[in-house]
Amino acid sequence: METTQHQRSADQRRRELLEAADRVVLRDGPHASMNAIAAEAGITKPILYRHFGDKGGLYRALAKRHTDALLRALQVAVDADVDRRERVAGTLDTYLAAIEARPQVYRFLMHPAEDSQPSEAGFDVGRHSAPLLRRLGEELGTVIADRVDLGPGGDLVARVWGHGIVGMMHAAGDWWLGERPCSRAELVASLTDLLCGRLFQVQDRADGPGF
Amino acid sequence: METTQHQRSADQRRRELLEAADRVVLRDGPHASMNAIAAEAGITKPILYRHFGDKGGLYRALAKRHTDALLRALQVAVDADVDRRERVAGTLDTYLAAIEARPQVYRFLMHPAEDSQPSEAGFDVGRHSAPLLRRLGEELGTVIADRVDLGPGGDLVARVWGHGIVGMMHAAGDWWLGERPCSRAELVASLTDLLCGRLFQVQDRADGPGF
DNA sequence: CCCGCATGTTACCAGCGGTAACGGCAGTCT
DNA sequence: AGACTGCCGTTACCGCTGGTAACATGCGGG
């Protein structure tokens, strides 16, 4: 049947276009223009728009690939058969290793679309770097809810923790990637300590008010 | 002397322009155009550029005001004379109350510039929503380093924690503001529990692998 | 009186995302 | 064979953006 043949070649074309877009986004940053992407793919703008609708569509498709890949890696880490602290540390390390290995991808994923329709009021706040982080947070939240017994209302607490931990990981990783103040292992250790509650176990300084 | 007089009136003009920009950014979101801002101020584009250089300059000036205000509020919270847990909870609550009260401001602060010069390579990663979060993280890091005795290398750990905690607060707040899954007090309690290390104190579920 | 100077304007530029309208080139139906 | 139907691709354009050059205007001081 030629319909399937057409569809297959269309899908293949789509993948080629995505790979071209990937190359140019990785080279030029997230502000790459549709013209540039089309040129890299050896074609012109309108066919990009026929395939992806608009720039948001292209970027969404592009982001999904990388997001899925990262999510799979994190799944593996979070399912590792070690004790809890080791598992937390391993998950953090997996994420940090990923963003360390491909900072351009990471940077792209954090503000992929900038779509943000007018939205009438102020209730769509978290649209900026959200898609990946939201997915990660939600996913981690369900993992925590599944595995840890938090009592009544625990599911909500688990979601809060999921988003909070992901945000912690993200912010610390972002800062670390920019300044490189220490090794990855040290960063992982410090963050794991923080999640272990070391902040509330250490002593105040002798002088000054306590924290 | 007329130089001071000129300067004063120029500064005053600048403040008027900033207030106009504030109004239109709060009304139209961060994608407000320079034309719109100029129109709101009752003038035209070029004088905006004479005052602020480029859009990034205007947005930076605009962001600084709100950032400073928020920082002052957080300073107060972090200096409160209560025990450590209460102080952590109070600081979180101050931040969340601020973003709850003025989500438009918050939204603007999170991606103010989008400047991101070409940068040649990939080492300026965290430019997207960074300025405010970076400042908060650095500030909190020094506060922690000042007040808590973390032993040798503790300053670095404190900075990691500062950025991590700020990121946790940010991500959880962003998600919460979008979905409103619970009251602010509940959110604060859950996050404080997380920082207290409750994640490592609770039991595994009876079934399934532990976390 | 004219000069400098700041303030404001109009008119323009390059680039962006996005689209309409047209040109070939396959395969299909009669 | 020849007309018809879709699809891939193009050129040329639109409205809008951030940003700038060049020109007008009102002001105080030699």
Automatic annotation (TrEMBL), chains A, B:
Residue ranges of the annotated DNA-binding region, renumbered to this chain: 33-52
Keywords: DNA-binding
Domain HTH tetR-type: 11-70
Gene3D superfamilies linked: Tetracycline Repressor, domain 2
InterPro entries in the cross-refs: DNA-bd_HTH_TetR-type_CS, Homeodomain-like_sf, HTH-type_TetR-like_transc_reg, HTH_TetR, Tet_transcr_reg_TetR-rel_C_sf, TetR_C_32
Name this protein carries in UniProt: TetR family transcriptional regulator
Species this chain originates from: Streptomyces kurssanovii
Species classification: Bacteria, Bacillati, Actinomycetota, Actinomycetes, Kitasatosporales
